[in-house]
Fold this sequence. Notes:
The complex is a heterodimer.
Chain A: H1 2-20, H2 27-42, H3 46-66, H4 76-116, H5 119-125, H6 130-142, H7 145-166, H8 172-180, H9 185-211, H10 217-247
Helix pairs in contact in A: 1-6, 2-6, 3-4, 3-7, 4-7, 4-8, 4-9, 4-10, 6-9, 9-10
Chain B: E1 2-11, E2 14-24, E3 29-34, H1 40-48, E4 55-60, E5 63-64, H2 70-78, E6 80-83, H3 95-106, H4 111-124, H5 140-152, E7 158-162, H6 170-187, E8 190-195, H7 198-204, E9 207-212, E10 215-220, H8 231-237, H9 241-252
Parallel strand pairs in B: 3-8, 3-9, 6-7, 7-8
Antiparallel strand pairs in B: 1-2, 1-4, 4-5, 9-10
Amino acid sequence: MVITNLIKDIGSYFIMLKRVFSGFTKGSVLKELIFKEIDDLIIGSLGIVAFISFFVGGVIAIQTALNLENPLIPKSLIGFATRQSMILEFAPTFISIIMAGKMGSFITSSIGSMRVTEQIDALDVMGINSLNYLVFPKIVALMLFPLLIALSMFLGITGGYLAGVYGGFTSTGEFVAGLQDSFEPFHLTYAFIKTFVFAFILATVPSWQGYFMKGGALEVGKASTNSFVWTSVLIILSNYIITQLLLS
Amino acid sequence: MIRVENIHKSFEENQVLKGISTVFEKGKTSLIIGASGSGKTVLLKCLLGLFQPDEGTIYYEDKAIGIMDDEEHRELREEIGMLFQGGALFDSMTIEENVMFPLRMFTRQKKSEMLDRVNEVLARVKLENVNKRFPAEISGGMQKRVSIARAIVNKPKYLFCDEPNSGLDPRTATIIDNLIQEITHEYNMTTVVVSHDMNSVMEIGESIVLLKDGVLVWEGTNQDIFSTDNKDVTEFVYSSELFKKIREVQQKEG
């Protein structure tokens, strides 16, 4: 029964994707919707992403410094560890999971509320492809998600630098040397490739949860919770697969 | 004119519509009435194309919706206005934006032309100075009027209303009922109203079909409803204490 339901859900998700990319909404309306989604999803997340990244970068630097007991290990490791942690995992993966909570819940609850109050039926009756109208602008807006992740990387490293240097754990020279040590440009490519995949998951899985929900206000809340769980699970799984494919 | 021929619809084992055939005429307000679970809303959704009937055909004028291609479906939908039970106004848009929405989606009018039309229909439903307010900021009755304005802004040929006066006080409900009827005559539309409200039946029931357990058991007008001997009609109508009393008075008066 569980497997049958899972197969049905996967099927309905892919059918939804097919409908999202067909029956396009009028261009001028779509353009406005995309700008609105960029404002809601990307601009609206700048503050929280900046805040979390800056302080987590600082904490990574401090914890690395506090664990450097062996005098043979250079202090430049603080900069190196901060860079690697931020670029490889924290910014792309963990910011995406945090965004699954923030953006994902917002997307599910807004589409779910429209379902409950018959607003989606109203679009369908008017002959508008409600999936294209509601989901496509979110996918386009979230193609700017890598900009948020780039900001997160930059602020995380900045936070690490300030905490490391002004906390007295390392010097500017050592931190910068660590940042430059064994730098692999492909790591950035890897981070941004997975960021695009996570952005697509972030736009579509919560939309699917909201669009196909049944019931009332209570179910909107449940759908938002499910949305967070499933988006996080898919981000973690795809992170593993992409890492295996690109880095191993 | 909408013609329904032998519509059947089931959900898994549950047969909801069992061979419904009727005609909804142009320029008239037709009511689909019946108790909860009788199949009214399913019939409405079949008419709207939201559900595909398992058997039978629905004709808009002389064209069966089952054989329409995507373009014809899209054109038909542009000719349909719908008033939902809860209004279904887009809560992130102002009243003006809500009413303008079908014009923006389906016409190439200039903004000033669209605004003129929006103001015209809002005035028609007797709403003024609400353009910049949001749906949550106006009363339920006003939301229904905005919903009517949105439904008619594109001058549709067909208007569907799903329990248009549910949740409204009797006076506001009567205003909404009368507005639907006036607009039907004014625009010469085919209007189909799903209701289980006897006041609506008496106010605007120019043509009535009664469903019971998915079967059409009676057709007539609001004038026929008190004179018919049909058992299903009397059971439905006189389940209300008010109408029982009316019947007693009528019987006393002979």
